[in-house]
Amino acid sequence: MLAEAVTLETKLSARNVHMTFTRDGKSTPVLNDVNVDVAKGEFLCIVGPSGCGKSTLLSAIGGFLAPTGGEVRIDGETVRGPDPRRIFVFQERGLFPWLTVEGNIEFGLFKLPKAERLSRIAHYIKMVGLAGFEKAYPAELSGGMKQRLEVARALAVKPDMLLLDEPFGALDSITRLIMRGELLRIWREERNTVIFVTHDIDEAVQLADRVAVMSGRPANIQKIVKIDIAHPRDISSPRYLELRNGILEQLGLAHQI
Amino acid sequence: MSHVVDSYYCRELPRSDNLTFMLYRLGGWVRPIAFIAFLLVAWQFAVSRGSTRLLPGPLETLGGIADLVRHGLLLKYITASLFRVTWGFVLAAVLAIPLGLFIGWHRRAEMAFNPLIQIFRPISPLAWIPIAILWFGVGDLSSVFLIFLSCFFPLLLTAINAVQRIPSVYVNAGRNFGLSEAGVVWRVLYPAVLPQLITGLRITLGVAWIVVVAAEMIAVNSGLGFLIVDARNAGNRYDLVVAGMAIIGMIGLLLDNGMRSLEQSKSLRWDYSEE
Predict the structure, then answer these.
(1) pLDDT band at B14 (very low <50, low <70, confident <90, very high)
(2) Backbone φ and ψ of B252, nearest 5°
(3) Does residue A15 share a domain with residue A38?
(4) Does B263 touch chain A (CB under 8 A)?
(5) Domain ranges for chain B
(6) By the CB < 8 Å criterion, does B198 face chain A?
(7) Does one domain contain both A110 and A153?
(8) What is the interface pTM, i.e. ipTM, of the complex?
């Protein structure tokens, strides 16, 4: 699916976002004038060196951290706190260990009538392939299953946006590849706007409509690379390698090893 | 898509209708009981051979227990001790847990309370005996107060730590799904701290039961602690002293087992480390 197929209505816009952390009287600038627009239904990946502030930017978008300068607007409204319309997916660590698979998915559905809750639970358990594990606790699931459960829990509240913070970082490489395919399939079904933070450049080029490349700290967005390859993507095609190398080059990492 | 079935399912033990499982359960009891029986026999043997009286033997102790039963004192004393422990423990839990959760949840409250808690905590409940007598006179109320003190600070600290140990992702996830502050407390904070609170309650109940002996040494006229002091003062009845000790030990074991069975409940058996 090409980026052109996406409607060009702006979902999110970050304007001059600055973030400075102050601890023990010392201030550390982390984000320095970040500007980015994300279209409705777009899949944006954010890549950058580790510790550069990718997660900080995502937390600001999610409303967990208030920027010290500038603002993040979603649907034209300034973000002032967390909101169920945009769900943050943690590295499989955000599941509630005291709730079963069903209980976790039901967690965010407390405002809905019982019948609607049950049908959503059933639907999303099936979508992420956890049928048969409804009564299992997270500790009884594998890493990949936990990650699928966390995505299901997020989708069940029908958010407009999913914010994923290195969601597959803790998985083994085979499970990670499977999960990327799963995420793309789900995204095509649900058409949420997705912002996906990763330090894995291949992951970004495989998934995204556009890749935002961040600089080292204090970070801003150096470049936004449009990935103009249709899904399913051939990861040995010349265009794929060209885009991937372009990003490596941008990060100053090409031809280094 | 393939599911990786966790080794959890392979670890499951055979069900209780299975003979192997019954034997397994039985095996768990046979060994400690056999060992205790062996020690009792050795003890009896050593006492009957020795000439000095350092300790009454198990048969004498049993005789002491029989004596207590005959005079209708055994049940009366056990009830009296359990009554004091229950009141002290329950009062401490009711006050310390909500206060601890509040302090743990609010950083500023913690900064205010922490020095005070650290000063009070190392003071042994026994040091409070004179104050207890001054405030409540000699009697039940003083004993309950001492047990209350021995439970209050450990439970307060357990509750504070339990809240502070909650990973922030849980609280953030709760807020993200649109929970109010009260919703976060009820649906995230409370279930997240429950396993630690129950472990804390179990350990503290053990402490309370230890303290009951000292608490009953201040001029109450019933209870297992009273029994021990009274038996010595009123004619060196060491058979009754050891009988009292044995009964305290056995009731302590039963209390601990009771609390442990609470911990085994499935929805509480998770821990952060399992992830």
Answers:
(1) very low
(2) -60, -40
(3) yes
(4) no
(5) 1-54, 55-274
(6) no
(7) yes
(8) 0.85
